[in-house]
Fold this protein.
Amino acid sequence: MGYSAEVVQRARARLAQAKEDRESENRQHLAEAYAKVPRIREIDMLLRRTMAQAAQAAFLQGSDGQALLEQARQENLGLQRERAALAAANFEEGFLDESPICDKCGGRVKPDVVLYEESLPEDTLTRSVNAIANADLLLVGGTSLTVYPAAGLLRYFRGEHLVLLNRDATPMDEQADLCIREPIGKVLEQIQVRDQV
């Protein structure tokens, strides 16, 4: 069963209006936040600058781009924490919600990832624990193993060999059979899968 063109047109108009209203409300909230807590404006400008520095570091030739990227990342994370603390101390939850708005439905767009301070889905944790508990070899790469609950998943590993692939040391290095101290991308691009005979 289809809808008439008029019904579809009215629905699209309502969604477009809802999106415009939310964007307008976000702009108004941001202006209020800047007026009430000027440091939030400063942080937003600094965040844009650190993102530009990170992009520049990624393309920089003749120097260690990784170190520059990490420095920009750490600065960015610190600014994000400070901004979140200021927002929490001065405004009700969600007041500065600047997540993108869907063009089709007018709702908030959220990536299919777990963001900082969000809980992992229970089914994901359960499947992860089962897979780790039944693995013969576990290769863990690109993590400091300091962020929980993901870092705690290693305690379920009962297999033969634990391999840690991370540029820096981790708290689990002593339990690992093999530690590889290289950037994960550099190592993974060298792996070659052989046909089993």
Q: What stands out?
A: The radius of gyration is 23 Å. The mean pLDDT is 81. The beta strands are 137-141, 161-165, 178-180.
